[in-house]
Amino acid sequence: MLNLPAILLQTALLLALAPLVTGLIRNWKAKLQNRRGPRLWQPYFDLAKFLRKDMVISEHASWVFRAAPHVVLISSLLAGLMVPMAATQAPLSLFGGVLAVIGLLALGRFFLALGGLDPGSAFGGMGSSREMTLSAIAEPALMLAIFTVAITAGSTDLSRIVATGQGPVLRLLDPAHLMAFAALFIVLLAETGRVPVDNPATHLELTMIHEGMLLEYSGRYLAFLEWGASVKQLVLMALLVNVFLPIGLSADGTAASLALGLAFFLAKILVLCAGVVVVETVNAKLRLFRVPDLLSASFVLATLALMGKFLFPQ
Amino acid sequence: MHALTPEFLLRSAWCAYGVGILGSLLCLRKERLAGLVGFSAASLASLCGIMAALSALGGNPAREAAVVELWPSLVPNVSLAVKLDALSAFFLLVASVLGLALSVYSLGYAGGFHGRKNVGLLGAFYNALLLATTLVFMANNAFFFLIAWEIMALTGFCLVSFEHEQDEARRAGVLYFVMSHIGTGFIILGFLTLFQASGGYGFDGFHSLSGNAKWLSSNSRNATFVFFLVGFGIKAGIVPFHIWLPAAHPVAPSNVSAFLSGVLIKTGIYGLTRVFFDFLGAPPMWWGVTVLILGTVSAVLGVLYALMQHDLKRLLAYHSIENIGIILMGLGAALLFLQNDHPLLATLALVAGLYHTINHALFKALLFLGAGAVAQATGTRDMERMGGLARRMPRTAFFFLIGAVAISALPPLNGFVSEWLTYQSLLQGFGTTTSLFRLLFPLSGAMLALTGALAAACFVKAFGITFLAQPRTERAANAREATSSMVAGQAILAASCLFLGLFPTVFLRLLDPVTEQLTGWRIAGRLSLANGLVLSTAAPGGGTVSTLGIAAVGLCLLFIPLALWLVFARGSRTRIGPTWDCGLKGLTPQMEYTATGFSKPIRMIFKALFRPRQEVQREYDYSPYFARTIRFEAHVEEVFETRIYRPLNRMVLRLSGRMRALQAGSLQAYLIYIFIPLLLLLMFAL
After folding, report:
1. Is the pTM of this model over 0.80?
2. Distance CA A4, CA B649 (A)
3. Do B544 and B647 reside in the same domain of the chain?
């Protein structure tokens, strides 16, 4: 029923690849802005350093503060195990489909926001409040876009959604499909805290969202949180590329096709990273109360996609 | 074991409730004894109720329910009959599980009233409320149903205004009383139309209507639908009939609040389910559409208003409106599926609604009990005066967190499971029809997603502001953990949430007789995969989920942080230090984020709905940046009250003012008033 090697391999892939994606985006973004930028593998060094460091924990914090980093890391990994990456069959697809992925990411966010509130610093509270608000208004667009693809597949099982997407590539140019993709791309930017919504590079006190919640974390716990955030980013990217461009995935699980699937997967992720980098470079960060406009645009796109499915059923 | 039939157990439960009522009243003077007798009797009765419900739901094929006459009736058409069929047994189970946990909790909680209020009275009313509610769920005759319904409403009123020396409690009590009776009026109208069609007041007669062709094509069937929707809708707290709920639930004693939010509003859901699926027969399309839309609106508005509250119990009360909305989404979808001939899908949607019914009862009661413990320890319900309680009341905090995760529909707890079922039925609904209405399914799914995410935001706020960071007041700093019986009551509910979250396929088997009675399908077997480890949709190839699997793999993954610690961090130390204070002289609780501040972004984004108003007064000497005092006030408009109920209220008052002119006090005029109708009646009669 469960494929243990697949679970271990995908967990390793998630943990190993996630910091690289973060590093890649930082490096490319710097290049595009005429800076030299950090090395590609700088995030790995950062993580290793955080892991070795001593920790300072706030005197006001309770056990929730200590639980949050673990929950964040594990829930992102669990969600990642339900998303197909190199193979059509995700290792844990029996244990949950896209609804469980959304639920698990929400679980991580819930605890992260509590961890932000626990030390009693106003920055943490600000970060928690904004994170929960923005994710809440991103949620309908996310669900509607997911519904659009799930209706086609007749299932919320991601492996099945990906499997039904196999076929002539031209079908992927269906306007409904493209609009749902655009809607989810906006949600991706919001959920991973990328530029028009949040600036991952800043610690400017009044603009930070995600960093605000991490402010009191140090050492090992900070490493878990940073790693968890990268994994979450990779999971959402994998969801986006494999649901909307399900080509090259290994269907039978032989070593050769897996290697090919992995190559395809990496290529797709690279392209998506490039997209994120371009968006981050050409846009300025939006004022907090302009973000809902962006997210409602995403909701409208998702609704249009759904109408498209309704008017032009395939 | 032969003697332990459900009927016997029921009788024992009633007797125990009776003992509870009488016992508490007899020991009115000795408050300790009164509490002990009243709440122990209620625990015992609830235990009997649980056993009765389980043995009624356990059998396969479904047991033929016996009609029990409580008392031989002297009046025709009225019989004091009860019948424990599957639907009744399910709701009895909800009420009894809650009754058990709440009664255990009350043993300690009532101690907070010693010397202040009469515990004996509390015990008596509490037992009477529980007894009346179980009778409502089981009555088999419209008259008996209404009698039990009214006893329930009246004891509820007495308990809402139990602390009647507070102005707030009195007002809330009266509002509850008035709304409840408007509801009863509509229910009576509904029963009268049913009586006209069936010629009796027995539920069995009503049930046989659903196969009656003449009734199915009649217009009065639609009228009945509307009457019951409004009548039971008021009790359930559906928007726009909800205004009494957030007023009444917070002011009652917390054990009663938990029962009101957990069970009492479910009598509305019970009534709707009973009438829609048992009496009225095949529904036309607009019924399902109406219920689905009402559910969606209630869910979204309920959670949005909840976010604006900083009274912990009021916040929870608004969440009840949200959850009733989610339940109605399931019921509405089921009605739509029945209409377009998909009984299996209808069963799935119905199961989603009923599963959410018991889930909401469990986690909402759990949260209310936690709120009660906190309110007792800090002497306030205002979250802005709490904080730091996780270190002072660790057990209560832990259980409250479980309830918060469950109500936010996060895996692996029970709220996630029932919302997952709701999503699945909405998703499959899209393919069942070709009309434009099918867009309704994904759109309400999207609104359900919004609801879930906002609920999570709301409970981050509720838990974070109440339990985390520094205590904001002296009282909160000196708070003590609740007594062991109060903790035990919460533990029962938390364990139930965990069980229903991790083992849904086991519990779903109990719903089989219910769905068999209402739609003719048993579905638990179809929903369970891999020996019950995995929950699936009944459709082949549909989604699957396993909360148990998620929890198990999650525990295994804990190995990763552990390994990282062993490899990298074994030599590192952990210091406890102050929170970063920007170089000032230490943080004070005043610098913490407040509940009002936390929800401000949402208040701004949805300002079209909330119409927020804020007032800031600053006193300063030299520059506004160095204020001596600041007063800040923020208000949110309750649109339904100011736009619908106040004008309505004014209109009624104005009309009654006009009517006063009729009562001039002159005898001749009154004789004329009597004479004219008489004349008219005679004319019609001839």
Report:
1. yes
2. 66
3. no
Q: Can you spell out the DSSP letters for A18-41? A: HHHHHHHHHHHHHHHTT-----TT
Tell me how crowded residue A267 is: count the other CB atoms within 10 A of its CB: 12
**What distance in Å separates the CA atoms of residue B245 and residue B265, rounded to the nearest whole number?**
9
Instruction: Count each helix (H run) and each strand (E run) in chain B, helices first.
Output: 31, 8
Q: At residue B438, does pLDDT exceed 90?
A: no
Nearest-CB residue to B469 (from A1, A11, A119): A119
- Is residue B297 a part of any domain in this protein? yes
Please check whether residue B70 lies inside any domain of the structure: yes
Q: Are residues B351 and B404 in the same domain?
A: yes
Predicted pLDDT at B335: 95
Domain ranges of chain A: 4-311
Considering B276, B292, B307, which residue would you say is the last residue of a domain?
B276
State whether B413 and B527 are in the same domain.
yes
What is the b/e burial string over B22-45, where b = at least 16 CB atoms within 10 angstroms of the residue's CB? ebbbebeeebebbbbbbbbbbbbb
- The beta-carbon neighbor of B543 closest among A64, A97, A113 is A97
pLDDT greater than 60 at residue B61: no
B390 CB near a chain A CB, below 8 Å?
Answer: yes
CA of B3 to nearest chain A CA: how many angstroms apart?
43
> Which chain A residues are closer than 8 Å to B544 by Cβ?
93-97, 157
pLDDT in tens, A270-299: 999 999 999 999 999 888 889 999 999 999
Residue B475 placed within a domain:
yes
Residue ranges in chain A assigned as alpha helix (H): 4-32, 42-52, 63-81, 98-117, 122-153, 158-164, 175-191, 210-214, 219-244, 255-282, 291-311
Whether residue B681 lies within 8 A of chain A, CB to CB, comes out as: no
Whether the ipTM is more than 0.85: the answer is yes
Q: Which domain holds residue B627?
A: 610-637
Contact flag B543-A155 (C-beta cutoff 8 Å):
yes
The predicted-structure confidence for B570-623, as pLDDT tens digits, reads as follows 888 999 999 988 888 888 888 889 999 999 999 999 988 888 888 888 888 888
